[in-house]
Inverse folding.
């Protein structure tokens, strides 16, 4: 079970990543940050996101991974975290699966 501090840091970094992508990502796709998971020692965080349209997932993930150091600087500038965790980005496969299940179970109109 995550501590209150772990949850706070993860949520804050999740929101910051959303703001960062809104400012820095190209306008060909919509990147939505879905969640963030932080290690118990608060040293590592993985930010998960979804991409619409789906065909831009690879491009968005490559952009996110290239932007890790820039995002780290953004976090330094906009937060008081000490030390700043090592940040990684991943596509949220769970969210993709949830959306697909929604699509399949939605009644036809």
């Amino acid at each position: 079970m995550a501590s209150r501090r772990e949850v706070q840091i993860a949520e804050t970094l999740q929101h910051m990543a959303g703001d960062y992508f809104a400012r820095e990502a190209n306008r060909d796709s919509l990147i939505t940050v879905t969640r963030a998971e932080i290690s118990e020692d608060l040293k590592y965080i993985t930010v998960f996101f979804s991409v619409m349209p789906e065909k831009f997932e690879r491009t968005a993930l490559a952009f996110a991974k290239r932007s890790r150091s820039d995002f780290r600087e953004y976090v330094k500038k906009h937060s008081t975290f000490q030390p700043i965790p090592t940040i990684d980005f991943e596509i949220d496969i769970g969210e993709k699966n949830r959306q697909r299940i929604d699509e399949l179970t939605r009644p036809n109109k």
Notes: The first strand starts at residue 30 and ends at 38.
